[in-house]
Design a protein that fits this description.
Oligomer: single chain
Number of helices: 15
Order of helices and strands: HEHEHEHEHEEEHEHHEHEHEEEHHEHHEH
Shape: globular
Low-confidence stretches: 1-20
Number of domains: 2
CATH architecture of the largest domain: 3-Layer(aba) Sandwich
Distance between the termini: 87 Å
Mean pLDDT: 92
Largest sheet: 8 strands, mixed
Structural class: alpha/beta
Helix content: 40-55%
CATH class of the largest domain: Alpha Beta
Radius of gyration: 22 Å
Number of strands: 15
Length: 353
């Protein structure tokens, strides 16, 4: 009887401790990175609950800057938006690698992201989902569009689209024979490149059906035929290809632009343990494959592609031969102040007649 009583007390204490440690994880992420099925599995396994807010790079930085790094416990900006944002705004806290199951990550991506997200000797980011942006083309109607500047060709006048965002500036610069990433450390040289790209994009405005903002918007424009070629992400092109084999992602001749979306801890997050539990949970190969099948992009998880659908693998291989992979331009960290130059350039392009 004494043993039963002690056992009952012990179990009750353990359950109480478990409940006390269960937190609500406020996740600021991209669409598709936290499928409901994954959330349900995580909540059942850990006792944590998950609240998801979907966003994009610009909005993530703005939300965390406005709150001095509070309001969320885990965020997923791209790796080039971390070191400079930390330098300017102090919105993140360092990663505690002792709480990360490092062997779940592809070593090269883990080390590369660590290098790109280090500030004052501290690592602020871990790799999660990676992919590229380039061209999504209806090859039956715009087969001549093989590079960014081809969007300005007279043959597709009024039938193209792209975002008024920094990837467009970067992609056009490379297509024009310039090297914007090499100029990152020299604001004057970078501004000179922006000036050339501004002139090109201003002249190209009559070709643009609309500047798209969201992924669903550009996919609908391509499905309807209103747009026959666009700058967009690889996953959007592959999703469209499933319905229309003429539409697919094309790696531009100047090189697709490569990105890695990360895990970062907001400076004033209040559920770090839940954040680390989520990171270690979703980087398990079988969970990573579920995210890839939902989001359309691959992850930095070791063996994370093993459970990915055969159709998605085939579309990836159709867009990227080895030469195209070797030609990917990976985004380096954005130096502090550079986005202000880009923002001013984009504003002038938008306002130009």
């Amino acid at each position: 009887m004494k043993f039963s009583l002690v056992s009952t007390v012990t179990v009750a204490a353990a359950l109480t401790a478990q409940i006390a440690q269960a937190d609500t994880l406020r996740l600021l992420t991209w669409g598709g990175y936290a499928p409901q099925e994954v959330i349900d599995m995580f909540e059942a396994e850990t006792g944590h609950t998950v609240e998801v807010t979907t966003s994009n790079n610009e909005e993530m930085i703005a939300k965390l800057r406005a709150t001095n790094g509070s309001g969320f416990d885990l965020a997923q900006p791209s790796q080039d938006r971390i070191a400079s944002a930390q330098e300017e705004f102090g919105i993140y806290k360092p990663i505690d690698m002792s709480k990360v199951t490092a062997e779940l990550f592809i070593p090269s991506m883990l080390s590369a992201t660590a290098g790109n997200t280090t500030y004052e000797g501290e690592v602020y980011g871990l790799p999660h989902v990676w992919g590229t942006s380039g061209l999504v083309v209806n090859t039956a109607l715009a087969g001549n569009v093989t590079d960014y500047t081809d969007l300005c060709d007279a043959s597709v006048a009024g039938q193209v689209s792209y975002r008024l965002k920094r990837p467009t500036l970067i992609g056009f610069a490379y297509s024009m024979g310039l090297d914007p990433f090499a100029a990152y450390g020299d604001p004057d040289a970078y501004q000179s490149i922006l000036n050339e790209v501004e002139a090109e994009l201003t002249e190209c405005k009559p070709n643009v059906r609309t500047y798209w903002d969201g992924g669903d918007e550009i996919k609908n424009l391509l499905r309807s035929g209103e747009v026959v070629a666009s700058m967009a992400w690889d996953t959007g092109g592959w999703q469209l290809n499933a319905d229309n084999p003429d539409i697919t992602f094309v790696a531009p001749e100047a090189g697709a632009l490569g990105w890695i979306d990360t895990f970062v801890l907001p400076a004033r997050g209040r559920a770090d343990d839940a954040a680390y539990d989520w990171i270690n949970f979703v980087m398990q190969p079988e969970i990573a494959a579920m995210i890839t099948n939902t989001a359309g992009n691959f992850t930095a998880a070791v063996d994370g592609d093993a459970g990915v659908s055969a159709d998605l693998k085939a579309r990836y291989q159709g867009s990227f031969d080895q030469a195209a992979i070797d030609n990917i331009k990976w985004y380096p960290p954005v130096p502090a102040g550079l986005e202000a130059l880009e923002g001013a350039t984009l504003d002038r392009i938008n306002a130009a007649n």
